[in-house]
Specification:
This protein is α/β, with parallel strands linked by helices. The chain has a single domain, classed as NAD(P)-binding Rossmann-like Domain (Rossmann fold, 3-Layer(aba) Sandwich), CATH 3.40.50.720. It is built from eight helices and seven strands. It has a seven-stranded parallel β-sheet, with helices on both faces. Helix 2 links the parallel strand 2 and strand 3. Helix 1 packs across helix 8, helix 3 packs parallel to helix 4 and helix 4 packs parallel to helix 6. The longest helix has 29 residues. The chain is globular and about 50 Å long. The two termini are 29 Å apart. Bound molecules: nicotinamide-adenine-dinucleotide (NAD). The site of nicotinamide-adenine-dinucleotide (NAD) has 25 residues, from helix 1. The site of nicotinamide-adenine-dinucleotide has 25 residues, from helix 1.
Length: 247
């Protein structure tokens, strides 16, 4: 489905980004993995290559615009194209709003939202010139339902949806698609750091489907949005949340 396509995936060293990078490679893409966890990112790329996939790891902080632009340039120089950008890197530290510092607010917006300014700036002129491209932004179902101790996170994820819709309108005439995914509660390796057993019970009560979702569930939606199967969509948010929020 992605044969001969070049895809950039941010936050690819673990969780949803790792699953997306692996799935894209399985479907034929040359994948550029961007993550600031250099060791894990390289390990994921090496494991993709060991399974005959095509992957290269780049130790990049997504808040560093010039570094992200350098990876995009490298992809274009080596392969002549970037077909897909998945903006997945994100953080979700908890804090009550009354305890939150301005620095915490700014940091989460830099990582979760401003990073997309950098990466989309880096690929959009190329995609517009080629009249082809798929941009997939990862937001969160929490934008629709709100979340305690995550006001900075939810605000940043709302920004992702606004950015997606506006760029879909701007880039549509150039045949560049911009969509987003709002994952629900996804069982990742890092989840136990933030989520209690009680939280998990609430997730399952809120979901229509009574199984925990994993990173692959989100990666499959990203694959759909990265291929011609989604050519009729732009500016949309796919809710991958097991039927939690419906709209
Ligand atoms: N897990 C969930 O339940 C869930 C739900 C809704 C939305 N999301 C969103 O999905 C995305 C991925 O979440 P996840 O649960 O897989 O996260 P994760 O913590 O498992 O992985 C995130 C990856 O991003 C990387 N990263 C973080 N900050 C970075 C930076 N500044 N520069 C480069 N790399 C950076 C980390 O090293 C890590 O490899 C995030 O945007 C998150 O907000 C997750």
């Amino acid at each position: 489905m992605l044969h001969d396509r070049v895809a950039l995936v941010t936050g690819a060293a673990t969780g949803i980004g790792e699953a997306t990078a692996r799935l894209f490679a399985e479907h034929g893409a040359q994948v550029f993995l961007l993550d600031f966890d250099a060791a894990r990112n390289e390990a994921v790329a090496a494991s993709i290559r060991a399974q005959s996939g095509r992957a290269e790891a780049f130790a990049v902080d997504v808040t560093d615009g010039p570094a992200v632009a350098a990876v995009a340039r490298a992809a274009i120089e080596r392969h002549g194209r970037i077909d897909v950008l998945v903006n997945n890197a994100g953080i979700y530290p908890r804090s009550l709003f009354v305890d939150m510092t301005e620095a915490q607010w700014d940091h989460i917006h830099n990582v979760n939202l401003k990073s997309m300014f950098h990466s989309i700036k880096a690929v959009a002129p190329h995609m517009i010139e080629r009249r082809s491209g798929k941009i997939v932004n990862i937001s969160s179902v929490t934008f629709h339902v709100g979340a305690v101790k995550l006001s900075h996170y939810v605000a940043s994820k709302g920004g992702v949806i606004g950015l997606t819709r506006s760029l879909a309108r701007e880039f549509g005439e150039h045949n560049v698609h911009v969509n987003c995914i709002t994952p629900g509660a996804i069982k990742t390796e890092s989840e136990p750091r933030f989520v209690s057993d009680d939280d998990v019970r609430v997730f399952l009560e809120s979901q229509s489907l009574k199984r925990r979702l994993g990173p692959l569930d989100v990666a499959r939606a990203a694959l759909f949005l990265a291929t011609e199967w989604s050519d009729g969509l732009t500016g949309q948010c796919l809710n991958v949340d097991a039927g939690w929020y419906m709209h």
